[in-house]
Amino acid sequence: MIDIDYLNFLENILTDNRKERFLNVLKNRTNHFTIAVEDVFQMHNTSAVMRSCEVFGIQELNVIEQRYGKSIDKQIAMGAQKWVDINTYESPSACVHTLRNKGYQIIATTPHENDCLLENFDISKPSALFFGTEIDGLSEEIMREADGFLKIPMVGFTESLNISVSAAIIIQNLTNRLRNSDINWQLSEDEILEKRLAWAKNSIKDIKRIEQRYFEENPR
Q1: Cross-strand pairs, 113
Q2: How, if at all, do strands 85-89 and 148-150 pair?
Q3: What pTM does this model have?
Q4: Known binding site for S-adenosyl-L-methionine: residues?
Q5: DSSP H or E stretch at residue 150
Q6: Which residues does the annotation place in the binding site?
Q7: Residues in contact with 15: Cβ distance below 8 Å, sequence separation at least 6, in sequence order
Q8: Model pLDDT for residues 71-124, shown as the tens digit of each residue
Q9: How far is residue 59's CA from residue 187's CA, in Å, rounded to a whole number?
Q10: With DSSP H G I counted as helix, E B as strand and the rest as coil, what are the percentages for the chain, rounded to 5?
């Protein structure tokens, strides 16, 4: 449950332009789709995927770190880590299980399956879109667990794209179609309040001191 008084206290520290910007961005945020990346060796690619999520309105990025476990490249992410929720998992099965329980269908992105081309993908179902390593693609475990497969149509000699490029193309296409549809894709009122609180805290310097002062003056 969001403490509205605390949220108002923090937002009063922000400029009106900042608060308005939060609301405008949140209008285009969605959890209807979520993105998952599996054991991406080059961390700048994961960071670039996170940046694409932020730019095109995907609120959550799921990172499976079974083999490589690295930190987000903040220079590539360019601040996106402040605005996108990052969920980390130690195994593909843990990620799949969690996302399935949240109501997502598991969609493997791969150039080697003919299940569905990007333009034909059904956007009505909440979907978790999985992207694999630069070298090996998605693991056999993810491929077995997938409810469907998605590929970008290509007409050249090259069989695949860099993961960050593939993710950007797919995320932009699907979110654009989503915003032009009649699907109920936006965040709920509670989710919006949660993001307003989190983003306000991320925007305020010395937030720990300010937070401590507030709760000392306003004990629960």
Answers
A1: none
A2: unpaired
A3: 0.89
A4: 109, 152, 161
A5: strand 148-150
A6: 109, 152, 161
A7: none
A8: 554 544 445 678 999 898 888 999 999 999 999 999 999 877 777 999 999 999
A9: 9
A10: 45, 15, 35
The dihedral sign for the CA sequence 174, 178, 183, 186: positive
Specify whether the CB–CB gap between 132 and 163 falls below 8 A. yes
User: How many whole angstroms separate alpha carbon 61 and alpha carbon 128?
Assistant: 10
Residue in this structure with the two tokens 């990620």, named with its chain if needed: 95
Residue 220: CB atoms within 10 A of its CB come to 5
> Kindly report the CA angle at 170 between 57 and 129, in degrees rounded to 5?
80
Place of tokens 């490249």: 73
Cα separation of 151 and 160, whole Å? 10
Report the alpha-carbon distance of residue 105 to residue 176 in Å, rounded.
20
